[in-house]
UniProtKB/TrEMBL annotation:
Binding site for 3-amino-2-oxopropyl phosphate: 13, 24, 201, 222-223
Residues the UniProt record annotates as site (Transition state stabilizer): 157
Protein species of origin: Ancylobacter dichloromethanicus
UniProt name for this protein: Pyridoxine 5'-phosphate synthase
EC number: 2.6.99.2
Record keywords: Cytoplasm, Pyridoxine biosynthesis, Transferase
Described purpose of this protein according to its UniProt entry: Catalyzes the complicated ring closure reaction between the two acyclic compounds 1-deoxy-D-xylulose-5-phosphate (DXP) and 3-amino-2-oxopropyl phosphate (1-amino-acetone-3-phosphate or AAP) to form pyridoxine 5'-phosphate (PNP) and inorganic phosphate.
Superkingdom of the organism of origin: Bacteria
Lineage: Bacteria, Pseudomonadati, Pseudomonadota, Alphaproteobacteria, Hyphomicrobiales
Active site, UniProt feature: 49 (proton acceptor), 76 (proton acceptor), 200 (proton donor)
Database matches in Pfam families: PdxJ
Catalytic reactions of this protein: 3-amino-2-oxopropyl phosphate + 1-deoxy-D-xylulose 5-phosphate = pyridoxine 5'-phosphate + phosphate + 2 H2O + H(+)
Length: 258
């Protein structure tokens, strides 16, 4: 008998469309147009990271994404008073709290939920009280995940970057160990009642593998899809990603939604 496993969603991050725009100035290419094209191609949601230094996404982009999207908007943000205030103003479907340093090129690790203490717990509570679904971007560490559940997060997004980097470097043993950590973390978080997402560094091959991890309900992918769109178009890149994710999910015996 075929097991019924929940389908897996694809969230598309449009930050790096804005990166290209900002490299030259002006308004093109427009990340909001990219978001709309991504949705037409099969994205289940859109993610955008409004950084403290506004290096890619701008405040005006967040407003337009909120106003024009018909799918959930995931506001990726640092756990700061400024960003909490903006989230409370815009009221996206979800926020994903991430660590942020000005000198980093991209998010380099998971949020220190334990070190965030009472202040982080208050921020999560404030966002959740406003009806915003709160996700915490974390490393596959059981103590951090347990703390995420304790402070009321609805979701954790597991940081897959280290695993992807080990694979790219040909470090097979380290990659296998990191994948085992991700599998254990997904099971642990799910047992605590958290919804499990995953993202960072994923490509067609790695997304297919993670899609076969039963507790994972959503993958959030940006840089790779925007880069691949240069060669095959955004629609082609997203459709290929969806095909690979469906193939991975099918290993669990799950029928995929159209």
């Amino acid at each position: 008998m075929t097991r019924i496993v929940p389908p897996i969603r694809l969230g598309v991050n449009v930050d790096h469309v804005a990166t290209i725009r900002n490299a030259r100035g002006g308004d093109l290419p427009d990340p909001v147009r990219a978001a709309e094209l991504a949705c037409a191609a099969g994205a289940d949601g859109i993610t955008a990271h409004l950084r403290e230094d506004r290096r890619h996404i701008r405040d005006s982009d967040m407003r337009r994404l909120r106003d024009r999207l018909s799918v959930p908007l995931n506001f990726e943000m640092a756990a700061t008073d400024e960003m909490v205030a903006i989230a409370l103003e815009y009221r996206p479907h979800a926020t994903c709290l991430v660590p942020e340093r000005r000198e980093e090129r991209t998010t380099e690790g998971g949020l220190d939920v334990i070190g965030g203490g009472v202040d982080l717990a208050h921020k999560v509570e404030k966002l959740a009280h406003a009806g915003i679904r709160v996700s915490l971007f974390v490393a596959p560490d059981e103590d951090q995940i347990a703390r995420a559940a304790d402070i009321g997060a609805a979701v954790i997004e597991l940081h897959t970057g280290a695993w992807c980097e080990f694979l790219a470097a040909g470090e097979t043993g380290s990659a296998e160990a990191e994948l085992a950590r991700l599998l254990e973390a997904a099971a642990h978080g799910s047992a605590l009642g958290l919804e499990i997402h995953a993202g960072h560094g994923l490509d067609f091959a790695t997304a297919e593998i993670i899609a076969a991890v039963e507790p994972v309900r959503e993958l959030n992918i940006g840089h790779f899809l925007i880069g691949e769109a240069i060669f095959v178009g955004l629609e082609g890149a997203i459709r290929q990603m969806r095909t690979g994710m469906a193939r991975g999910r099918a290993r669990l015996g799950a029928p995929q939604a159209a």
